[in-house]
Design brief:
The chain contains 13 helices and two strands; from the N terminus they run H-H-E-H-H-H-E-H-H-H-H-H-H-H-H. By secondary structure, the chain is mainly α. It has a two-stranded antiparallel ribbon.
C-alpha cells in the first residue's frame, strides 16, 4: 500500500542516493571490463554498465525536476563505506562479476520496495521512472538472500571523482588461448598482396568477423570503460553517453560472435593485435583520444559500414547484412558522442576542433574519409561533424 507520509524531499534523497550508487557502480564495473579475462564476463559487465547508464540518465532528469540544485550524493554513509570494501576486494573475474551482481540485485530489491512506498498520484513521475527501470533494467536480476539495503538519513556523502576504483590496466586481459601478434589478422593475402573477398569467401568472412569481434567490439567496450574511469570529473552526461556506447558494443560483440560461430569460427582462432588500444594510447589527453577513437576511427568505420552493408546485400548474405544494419545505426551515435564532447572540451571552437581531428588523422596515418571512399557529407552531418570541418574536407578532396 502506498505511504501517504512519503514527502517529495524523501524522493529527492532516494533518487540522489540512487544516482550516487549507479554512478560509482558504472565507475568500477567499467574498469572491470579490462580486468576480467573471460569474454563471457566482459559481456556480463558490459550489459550491467549499459543498463546502469540508461538508469542514470532517467534519474538525473527526474531529480533535476524535483530540485535543480541536486547533487550526486548518498544519504547513507554506511552504504558508501560498503562500496570501498567491495572495490578493494575485486581481484579475480569471479570477484568482479560478483560485485556487479550485488549492485544489480540491490537496485532490483530497493526499487521494488520504493515503488510500493512512493505516492503514485502526487509523485507519479518518480513512480513511473522506477517502474520503467525495474521492468527494463532489473526485472531479470536474481536477488540473493542477503541483499544490500539503503537507509535514508540526515547525513550525506557526496560523489568524489577521486574515490577508490580498481587498478586501471594499460592493456586488457584476454584468455590465455588468445595469441597476441603485431598486426591484425584480417585477410589472408597471396604473394601479390591480393586478398579473398569476404562476400564470396567463407574463410575471409570468418577472419573478418573474428577481427570485428576481437579487435573492435570487445576492445571498444574496454576502452570506453577506461575513458569513464579516467575522466570522472566530466559531467554526468559524459558518463551516460559512454555507458550507452559500452552497451552498444556489448550487443555488437554478442551478435558478431554468434554469427562467427554459425559459420564455424571461434574467438581465438586467429591472432589478436591490440590495435585499438595502441591507437587509444597515442592520445595524451581526453580531447586527443576522442579525436582518435570516436571521430576519426569510428567516423570512417561508420562510412565504410554503409558500403559493406550494400556489398553484403548484393552478395545475398542476409544474416551478416542484418547485423551491419544495426551496427551502422549505433556507430552514428558513437561518432556523435565524440563530436559532442570534443566540441565541449574545445569550448565549441571549431578551428581547435579541426586541429585536433586532423592531428589524430595524421598520427593514425588514416585519411578522412579513407582512401578510395567517398565523403558522405549528409551522414557525417547527422553524426555531428561541424559544417565548417566538412567544408574543409570537401575542398581537400576536390
Amino acid at each position: 500500500m502506498t505511504q501517504k507520509n512519503w514527502p517529495l524531499d524523501k524522493s529527492r534523497k532516494l533518487l540522489e542516493s540512487y544516482l550516487y550508487i549507479a554512478s560509482r557502480s558504472v565507475d568500477f564495473l567499467a574498469v572491470g571490463l579490462g580486468q576480467v579475462e573471460a569474454f563471457e564476463a566482459k559481456l556480463e559487465l558490459g550489459a550491467s554498465v549499459g543498463l546502469l547508464g540508461r538508469f542514470l540518465e532517467d534519474l538525473e532528469q527526474r531529480v533535476r525536476q524535483i530540485h535543480p540544485g541536486f547533487g550526486i550524493r548518498i544519504w547513507d554513509p554506511a552504504f558508501a563505506s560498503q562500496f570501498n570494501t567491495l572495490i578493494n576486494n575485486m581481484r579475480t573475474d569471479a570477484d568482479i562479476c560478483s560485485a556487479g551482481a550485488i549492485v544489480m540485485s540491490f537496485f532490483k530489491n530497493s526499487i521494488e520496495t520504493s515503488i510500493s512506498s512512493i505516492d503514485c498520484v502526487l509523485d507519479q513521475p518518480t513512480h513511473f521512472l522506477l517502474k520503467r527501470a525495474h521492468a527494463g533494467c532489473f526485472d531479470d536480476v536474481e536477488v540473493p538472500s542477503q541483499a544490500w539495503t539503503l537507509t535514508l538519513g540526515p547525513v550525506c556523502v557526496d560523489y568524489d571523482e577521486r574515490a577508490v576504483i580498481p587498478f586501471l590496466h594499460s592493456i586488457p586481459r584476454r584468455p590465455s588461448t588468445v595469441v597476441l601478434d603485431s598486426q591484425p589478422y584480417l585477410i589472408k593475402k597471396d604473394s601479390q598482396g591480393r586478398g579473398d573477398d569476404l562476400t564470396t569467401s567463407q574463410e575471409a568472412l570468418k577472419r573478418f568477423l573474428h577481427f570485428v569481434a576481437m579487435e573492435i567490439e570487445f576492445s571498444a567496450m574496454e576502452l570506453c570503460g577506461k575513458t569513464i574511469a579516467m575522466h570522472r570529473e566530466m559531467p554526468l552526461a559524459f558518463k551516460c553517453d559512454f555507458a550507452r556506447q559500452i552497451h552498444d558494443e556489448t550487443r555488437h560483440a554478442i551478435a558478431v560472435w554468434n554469427r562467427l560461430r554459425e559459420i564455424g569460427g571461434y574467438l581465438g582462432e586467429f591472432p589478436y593485435s591490440q590495435r585499438l588500444w595502441k591507437c587509444f594510447n597515442m592520445g595524451q589527453n581526453l580531447a586527443q583520444r576522442l579525436a582518435l577513437q570516436n571521430i576519426v576511427m569510428e567516423g570512417n568505420a561508420f562510412e565504410n559500414g554503409l558500403s559493406l552493408e550494400a556489398e553484403l546485400t548484393q552478395a545475398g548474405d542476409a544474416e551478416t547484412c542484418r547485423i551491419w544494419e544495426f551496427l551502422n545505426m549505433d556507430e552514428m551515435s558513437h561518432v556523435q558522442y565524440g563530436n559532442k564532447w570534443l566540441l565541449h572540451l574545445t569550448g565549441h571552437n571549431e578551428s581547435e576542433y579541426a586541429r585536433q581531428v586532423l592531428l589524430a588523422s595524421r598520427n593514425l596515418r588514416i585519411s578522412i574519409p579513407r582512401e578510395g571512399t567517398k565523403l558522405d557529407v549528409t551522414a557525417r552531418m547527422d553524426a555531428g561533424f561541424p559544417a565548417s570541418f566538412l567544408d574543409h574536407l570537401q575542398k581537400v578532396k576536390a
